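Checklist before submission:
- one chain only
- standard amino acids only
- sequence pasted in full

Submission:
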Amino acid sequence: MRSQRLVSCMLLLQSKRRTTARDLATSLEVSTRTVYRDVEALCASGVPIHMERGPLGGIVLADDYRRALAQFTDGELQALFAAGTGPMADLGLSALPQALQKLAGALPAPQRRAAEASRSRLLLDHNRWSRGEQPTSILAQLRGACERERRIRLEYRDRNRAVTERTLEPLGLVAKAGVWYLIASEREKGYRTFRVERILTVRELSETFARPADFNLETYWNESVASLERASETTYDVVLRLRSEQLWRVTSFWKTEVLAEERDTTTLRIAFPSPEMAGVHLILCGEAAELVSPAELASTVAAYARAALTRYATKPPAADGVQTSMEGAPRA
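Returned file contents:
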């Protein structure tokens, strides 16, 4: 695309004091005539480029403009090149590493070395564990519909596995911890958030829509996250005395506060989201945990335990070739 070529032309010009049309044509894989047209287009847009004649002449980008493009701080370079490891490939935008490579090549030598050092020492992995395959084809379709402001019709499976068909006006895509979300406007329901992994099919319609002038994707998302976090602030606090080697069973998942530490045990206040979740975790901890408070949680734990005993006390017959005991199993 011409716009990409113009940017590449500027980066090449700022990496050198001057260059010839022939060298630019070779680097850009175009004719010298195309280079002259591109230089004229850059001049018309306000970029200070001029021609110097003679054996040492060529196409020159003004020094002040070159310095403005290259004046990155070390912190800015770290931010730029660390961001290059983001999830943009999910959207089919796989050109970011090449763009950063071009930018690195256009930097002065000291900053180029700083950028290379940053890339070798800092890596941001935005994806959650066990992320699995991403719906890249659907994401590419959604991105295209957002850019063209076209309505879409999709089949969506909600958290209860019910499938519905919806007609939406796509406004933007957000990636949070490796999970993609579509922000869209639905008639009579306003702005909605859809998890892209649950979209079964999507079809771009010929109908266009007018993007709301007052809609800001970042503002909408931040307000949605804040609202969700406020809704989950109510917790069920439990005080447990837990064997110290079993602390990971709760500290890895829930907000905790250490109340007391003894030789082999630690007393914790744990913020569970509900009594039910607290009861399940107490059963998982088994005899390693002792409930201190609240006392009424004991009845919940006992009810879960009785239900489990009723269901599993009678050991089912083992299938042929299936080992049902831990005897002979590898130990961690």
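Reviewer check: The mean pLDDT is 80.
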